[in-house]
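Consider the following input, taken from an annotated entry for Heavy metal response regulator transcription factor (Actimicrobium antarcticum).
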Amino acid sequence: MRLLIVEDEPKAGDYLRKGLMESGFVTDLARTGPDGLNLAIEQNYDLILLDVMLPGIDGWEVLRQLREKKETPVLFLTSRDEVSDRVKGLELGADDYLIKPFAFMELLARVRTLLRRSPLREADTMSVGELEIDVLKRRVIRQGERIELTAKEFALLHLLVRRKGEVLSRSLIASQVWDMNFDSDTNVVDVAMRRLRAKVDDRFDKKLVHTVRGMGYVFEERD
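Applying the prediction step yields:
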């Protein structure tokens, strides 16, 4: 699932982004109101985490303009704890309101709850052939055997399964899983793919991860 954080405080934004990515989410970060609004409108997100006090335009205005175009779920993150502020956010179309400071585990629980409510949310479980993924529990099973993956390996597999049948370029994989621009001198994607294959493919007869020469990788069941 893909999330957007709109937070101008550098440490808070970086902390949230790191924690959510380690929890298996593809996460973008904007540090101003205009940048956040532009990303929220131009890209498709499953959930937006939105601060109220932002440079450029505040979170209230970001939400107001967003609601003219999209119904993406929004979780407000703010130190403003007045009842009138919470009511204002909810009336503008926010789906939840979390007051700073908060524990990351509470944030994660709220995020997962909102994603479960969303009619457009991704399925909790996914499968390709004999491979099954429990997205919420971050559990991978093939032929009844549980496969242990690192956070990055799970994020990589999750991306491949979500886009099964599509040829994914190395640059797209690098941007989605590592949030980095792909450098042709860097073999991080190929190394990670070899490690993933060793866990999900090598011991099984039917292979699911396939290299498309000169283009990238595709995840699919073949006869």
